[in-house]
Amino acid sequence: MPQGCSNHRVRQLMRGIGQIYDAHLNDTGLRITQYSLLSHVLAASPVRPVDLARLMRMDASTLTRNLKPLIDAGWVSLGQGGDQRSRLVHITDAGRAKREEAKQSWKTAQNALNARLGLERVVALHGLIDECLALLDGADRPQT
To answer: pTM for this structure?
Structure first.
C-alpha cells in the first residue's frame, strides 16, 4: 500500500521541479507557470479562456489569475470573441518575443532536470504522468 498522501507527494515533486525551472528562467522575468501559459497561448491563439483552461487542466479562476500579469505586461491580450459575451486570448508580438527570449532558459532547465534525475527516469516519469492523466480523465466520465 502507498504510504502517505499522494497529493502531498506530487506537490513536493512539483515544487522541486519548479525550483529548477524558476532558477533558470529567473533572468527572463518569467516563472515556469508564466512561460507555460505563454507557450500554450502561442500554440492555440486565439483561444477562448474556457478552452485554454481545459487544455492546461486548470480551473477558470486559476487561469484568470495567471493571465492577469501577462495581460498587464502586454504579452497577451483578451479581446472580443465571436459574440458579445465571449472573449479570446491572443498572444501579442511582445509576448512572442518574451517567450522566444525565455525558450533557451527553459531548454537549459529541462536539460538540468534530465541530468539531475537521469534521462531514463524523466522518460518514465512522462509516461507515468500521461497514463495517470488518461485514467483521471476517464474517471470524470460516467461508467457504462
So the answer is: 0.85
Q: Which of 89, 78, 73 is nearest to 30 (CA)?
A: 73
Within 10 A of 97 (CB to CB), how many other CB atoms are there? 11
Q: What confidence tens digit (pLDDT) does each residue in 20-66 have?
A: 999 999 999 999 999 999 999 999 989 999 999 999 999 999 999 99
**Can you tell me the mean pLDDT for 112-125?**
97
Grid coordinates belonging to 114:
534530465
Q: Please give the radius of gyration of the chain, using alpha carbons only, rounded to the nearest integer.
A: 17
